[in-house]
Design goal:
This protein has 282 residues and is an alpha+beta fold. Helices cover 38% and strands 23% of the residues.
C-alpha cells in the first residue's frame, strides 16, 4: 500500500487539503474540499434537494424533517464541493458535491457504504490504497460540462495528494425496474466487466442479473446515450463494472458497482499540473 509524504512531514490530511489542493476554476466556478460544518451541511442540503425532491428518493422521518441527506459516513468523509463564486464564496455558493471515503476512514466505521450492496472481500486483497466515491450530485442549473469537469479534476487532485490506487463505488441508473434498463445493464456487463481480481459481486440477497438481452443485438450508440453522464465518464476513463446490479428502492435507482484504477484518471486530468502539485509537497 502506498504511503503519502505527508507522514514524513507531520502534516495532517486537513493541512494538505488547505495548503496544497490546487486552485481549480472554470468561469465563476471552483472546486475544493469542504472545510467547515456549514459547507458540509450545504452539501447535505443539496443532496436532499437532488435525491429526494427531484429524483423521488424516499426519506425517513429524520431526513424529511431536517431536509438533509445524512448518514454515518458523512462524519468520516471528505466532501468535494463545486462553488459558484457569482453567488458566494462560502457555503451559500455550493452547487455540486461528491463524497470521498478513504479506506483508513472507513475502518473507523468498520465498512464501506458499498458493502450494503456488494461483497467487497476482493478489495481487501488489493495491494493499494482505496477510495470509495459516491453521493455525487449537481444542482439542476449547473449540469454542464464545466461543473462535471471540475468535479473530475478535483477527484484527480485528491487521488494524487492521498496516493490513491483504486477508486470505486456504486453508480446509479434511474428507476427500479431492471427490465426497463435491460439494454444498458447488458451493455455494461458485456463490454465493461471488471477483471477477476477486481470483480466484486452483488450480495446474493440483492443481486439482479445484468445480462438481460442478447448482447450481440444491442445498438451500442443508443445504449451509451441512455447511460447517465457519470457512468459514461467512468467508462471513458477505462472503468469497470462489478458482477450484478442492485435495486435501491429508497433512492429510486438501480445501482452498478464501478471501479477505476487511479492512473487512468490521473493520466487524463492531472498531468498538466502534476509538477505543480509535486513541488507543493517537496
Amino acid at each position: 500500500m502506498n504511503t503519502s509524504s505527508q507522514s514524513n512531514r507531520g502534516l495532517s490530511t486537513l493541512d494538505l487539503d488547505r495548503t496544497n489542493f490546487p486552485d481549480l476554476r472554470g468561469g465563476s466556478l471552483s472546486v475544493r474540499i469542504a472545510q467547515t460544518d456549514a459547507e458540509r451541511d450545504a452539501a447535505q442540503a443539496l443532496r436532499y434537494q437532488v435525491f429526494y425532491e427531484e429524483m423521488g428518493a424516499q426519506p425517513n422521518a429524520q431526513t424529511k424533517s431536517l431536509k438533509r441527506d445524512i448518514d454515518e459516513f458523512d462524519a468520516i468523509a471528505d466532501h468535494l464541493l463545486v462553488i459558484d463564486h457569482a453567488i458566494a464564496e462560502d457555503e451559500r455558493g455550493v452547487v455540486g458535491t461528491y463524497r470521498l471515503v478513504q479506506d483508513n476512514a472507513a475502518a473507523k466505521i468498520g465498512r464501506f457504504y458499498s458493502s450494503s450492496e456488494y461483497d467487497l472481500s476482493l478489495l481487501q486483497e488489493f495491494q493499494g490504497k482505496l477510495l470509495e466515491v459516491g453521493r455525487s450530485c449537481v444542482h439542476k442549473n449547473y449540469r454542464n460540462r464545466v461543473a462535471m469537469q471540475l468535479l473530475w479534476r478535483g477527484i484527480a487532485s485528491y487521488i494524487f495528494l492521498h496516493r490513491i490506487d483504486l477508486l470505486f463505488g456504486c453508480a446509479s441508473l434511474p428507476g427500479i425496474n431492471p427490465d426497463l434498463l435491460s439494454d444498458e445493464l447488458t451493455y455494461l456487463y458485456h463490454n465493461h466487466l471488471a477483471p477477476p481480481a477486481l470483480r466484486i459481486r452483488a450480495l446474493e440477497t440483492h443481486r439482479i442479473e445484468m445480462i438481460r438481452t442478447n448482447p450481440h443485438e444491442l445498438n451500442v450508440r443508443q445504449c451509451l446515450s441512455k447511460l447517465p453522464p457519470l457512468i459514461k465518464g467512468y467508462l471513458r476513463l477505462g472503468g469497470y463494472v462489478g458482477d450484478g446490479a442492485v435495486v435501491d428502492k429508497q433512492f429510486n435507482t438501480t445501482d452498478v458497482a464501478i471501479l477505476v484504477k487511479s492512473e487512468l484518471l490521473a493520466d487524463k486530468y492531472y498531468r498538466h499540473y502534476e509538477r505543480r502539485l509535486r513541488d507543493a509537497l517537496d
